[in-house]
Known about the structure:
This protein is α/β, with parallel strands linked by helices. It contains 12 helices and 9 strands. It has helices at 23-28, 34-40, 48-57, 64-67, 80-83, 149-161, 180-191, 205-208, 215-223, 242-253, 272-284, 308-321, and strands spanning 112-116, 119-123, 167-171, 198-203, 227-233, 257-263, 288-293, 329-332, 341-342. A 9-stranded mixed beta sheet has the order 1-2-3-4-5-6-7-8-9. Strand 8 (329-332) and strand 9 (341-342) form a beta hairpin. Helix 7 runs parallel beside helix 9. The longest helix is centred in the C-terminal third of the chain and has 14 residues, at 308-321. Residues 1-17 have low confidence and may be disordered.
Amino acid sequence: MTPADPLLLNTAEITADVYPADWQQQLQQAVRTPAELLRMLDLPESLLAGAEAGARQFALKVPRSFVAKMRCGDVNDPLLRQVLPLTDEQLPVSGYVTDPLEELDNNPLKGLIHKYRGRVLLTVAPACAVNCRYCFRRHFPYQDNSPARAEWQQVLEYIQADTSVNEVILSGGDPLLAPDRQLSWLVSALNDIAHLKRLRIHTRLPVVIPQRVDAALLGWLQATRLQAVVVLHINHANEIDEQLVKKVSELKAVGATILNQSVLLKGVNDSAVALSALSEALFAAGILPYYLHVLDKTAGTAHFDCSDARAVELHNELLASLPGFLVPKLVREVPGKASKTPVY
């Protein structure tokens, strides 16, 4: 029997098995227009004008395997709400700005952000596999932070010269969008800097395209002497499936510690039931809940915001219902502070 073409299937019929094994091909096939996303999920055309206007400001991009986890016909699906542009994004809201974390003030070299003592962040890739509508870097000038090989050498020299730095964070965009040959070279070079101890990778790719965790990735990750920490970004229990669980197991088998950070999002996970289910599903998958961030006040994202009072109320409900190791730290990032700041 000829395999079904995932481009022609209704999402209710899609399973992970019909997708190409090649993660780059899956990325190329990602949904990039609101009209196609609405058609796939049997959603009303009344959403189209606002979605198209939002997508002109910040492009829509969703891998089909992530769309397959959404409920057809449900405009309030918690995964859909994370990726569907809305008219609300176009409303100017006081206090919501393009660089809420003032990262550009801590950007001494192309591709390097140095905000906290002991660690630096590298923008390894200028894009993500999925464009989350609440992204705090949706306005980030990636065109000015995509180093060529010679410029990466300057970054390495910067790290080599600062012996207080013991941890490097690979970020982006999503660092796992970079080719494995580039990542292997970069991690090998970091490995040679004696005062580094840890390599942290912040990624959403194993969640939206699990096939990205392949033999090549596992190879360079296992080869480093640096202690590897993979921080996933999962906001709702419905994002976790058997494919992700399998890939988490493979990452742990090569020595990586797997953590998760979430963002508290109105209409997505702003209930104790949703947050508790997320923590339970994460731990069952071998992932430890790490941070629950309140929303960074990025222009175009105000409709996702929950008040601090509501965030604290939810966090206290989690403390009352879950063991402590399943309760993520409730934090915000405040420009100029030495670390993430507890909300209470």
